[in-house]
């Protein structure tokens, strides 16, 4: 058990933004919400999975919708606690704490806001180990934990409680409501016992985000050593360096869709890369050959500072480094690949682990 204050939040937001694989929301927005909550209510208690009771109930809270919209349609501030408290009342049970459902610049910060406002602890796990665009794309879903009952609410105070027969139906019905609420809303879902969290949660994700953020923020005279430290922590691959020369985006049905083209720099000069995304980066092609695809992570960072870049922040002329990180092993099972593999997103090829595609030596 330890406490998270402003210095921890800065690092967690940065690391979570990298693991968001382009999605999960803008880290500046998430960081400022969490910093404000901690400044007002005090530091947040962080518990490890082995410190929670099996019978207690915990719930994540998150932002749902198109990340691009969230850069202009800011939360009012009370939506997350409203969703959290309303679902707790609906369940009729005492809620022992909260946790993030995914890694991301906003969605790793929202539970910190809820924990600070409610005086409840935060648990060091999540349900993805990265970010994914749809509600059923969680390790809790793979383990048979239901997404519902769930709450959807907006900044105006509109609120609904959803119960569905499958987690995919949760995604479909909640997404329709989020679109009507302006393509961005707040949700609380996947109420889970401590036992379910221990069985299905991605353990230690908040601490991992903090360690990544510390590497990025630490002044380091050797850029290559800094990059190597990130690769060592994530078991990742350095896939590309380059400048974005074209980017297209389209916000529809509550998602940000798009594609970017990158011209190679440094050791990747005379090469090109294309990355396609749906909130999160889905597939990367280098010189027309697929080099990484979901569920593995395609992460973008500023080429010089290694500060992560999210899909809504990238623009023409931006110089970026592209990293490929292996997904949690649960995503590489047949059930995981059926849920988040390339064919689910409409690609006509099977998943291949990034280690098998890329032969570069890890740092």
Structural write-up:
Residues 8-163 form the S-Me-THD N-terminal domain. Residues 166-354 form the S-Me-THD-like C-terminal domain. This is DUF917 domain-containing protein. Pfam families: S-Me-THD_C (PF20906), S-Me-THD_N (PF06032). It is a single chain. The mean pLDDT is 93. With 363 residues, the protein is α+β, with helices and mostly antiparallel strands. The chain is globular. The strands form 5 sheets. The chain has an 8-stranded antiparallel beta sheet with strand order 17-16-15-14-13-20-18-19. A 4-stranded antiparallel beta sheet has the order 4-10-8-9, with helices on both faces. The longest helix is centred in the first third of the chain and has 15 residues, at 27-41. It has 12 helices and 20 strands. It has helices at residues 6-19, 27-41, 67-70, 79-91, 110-118, 139-142, 167-180, 194-200, 205-217, 223-234, 334-340, 354-357; strands at residues 2-4, 44-47, 57-59, 61-65, 95-98, 122-123, 125-126, 150-153, 159-162, 184-188, 192-193, 202-203, 237-252, 255-264, 272-278, 280-286, 289-293, 297-302, 308-309, 319-325. The chain folds into 2 domains: 2-205, CV3147-like fold; 220-356, Beta Barrel (CV3147-like), CATH 2.40.390.10. The two termini are 32 Å apart.
Strand content: 25-35%
How are strands sequenced across the largest beta sheet?
Answer: 17-16-15-14-13-20-18-19
- pLDDT averaged residue by residue: 93
Total individual domains: 2
Radius of gyration from the alpha-carbon trace, in angstroms? 19 Å
Number of E-type strands: 20
Beginning-to-end CA distance, first to last residue: 32 Å
Could you name the CATH topology of the largest domain? CV3147-like fold
Low-confidence stretches: none
What kind of sheet is the major sheet? 8 strands, antiparallel
Q: Give me the number of helical elements.
A: 12
The appropriate CATH architecture of the largest domain is: 3-Layer(aba) Sandwich
CATH superfamily label of the largest domain: CV3147-like domain
Structural class: alpha+beta
Gross morphology is globular
How helical, in percent, are the residues? 25-40%
